Amino acid sequence: MLKLDGVEVVYNRVALVLKGVSLTVPAGQIVALLGNNGAGKTTTLRAISGLLAHERGEVVRGRITWGDNSLRERSPDYIVRQGVVQVLEGRRVFEHLSVEANLLAGGYTAGSMRSSRSELKMIYSYFPRLADRRNQRAGFLSGGEQQMLAIGRALMAHPRVMLLDEPSLGLAPVLVSEIFEIVERLNREEGVTVVLVEQNAEAALQIAHHGYVLEDGRIVLEGPADKLRQNQDVAEFYLGLS
Ligand code: ATP
After folding, report:
1. Closest to 29 (Cα-Cα) out of 230, 211, 217, 237
2. Which of 2, 112, 169, 184 is most buried (CB neighbours < 10 A)?
3. ipTM of the complex
4. What separation in Å is there between the alpha carbon of 42 and the centre of ligand 1?
5. Could you report the per-residue pLDDT of 133-143, keeping only the tens digit for each?
6. In 3-state terms, what secondary structure has residue 26?
């Protein structure tokens, strides 16, 4: 399991942004991390994936472990090699490269020398839209397709845990459902553990097993996804559901 215990993050040497976050992501589950703008969701993912940097005065305290391995203060490379992979924001694909070259770049980042053929085949089976456009420049893809490409690229690194940052951002509802369905299948069929950061609580709780709500750098609520969805008061107040 992936475990955070009393994690604090300081930005600019002074601003305490995460104020002791503890959460557990059991292997094989989808765990949603919900909360409003600025609550600290992205910061939590960056702390896990090693993307916070000392040089910029960003400090992480507390414990972050995946199984028996501590991930805190490890390089992003090391963390990817442990199978913990963050999906970079959808719009950050290499626009001038083809879809397939973008995917192959994901495998390269993982330092994998294995043949990429079987990975590509697997990814194209989940994302037929990417297969159709494999030779097209990534810059010509729609927002939803770029999000799919970002997920596909992360899959090339053989993730055991995938950290997803707001995959629904800016997408039409039909595409949100399509992408969430694929994430659920990747979890069920490939056994990928998922940490799903979302402002779209309704969509996230439909596929998550468990959810946590962050507010101002603290976990204020947690529970099984169906319980969170059923709790009307709580859902309206924290999650904007009605
Ligand atoms: P959003 O959905 O807007 O990304 P979030 O819940 O992911 O929200 P974070 O991005 O983690 O929130 O930001 C948490 C707080 O940390 C915010 O107050 C934000 O302004 C601040 N913050 C984020 N990145 C930095 C940074 N590089 N330097 C200083 N402060 C930052």
Report:
1. 211
2. 2
3. 0.91
4. 7
5. 999 999 999 98
6. coil
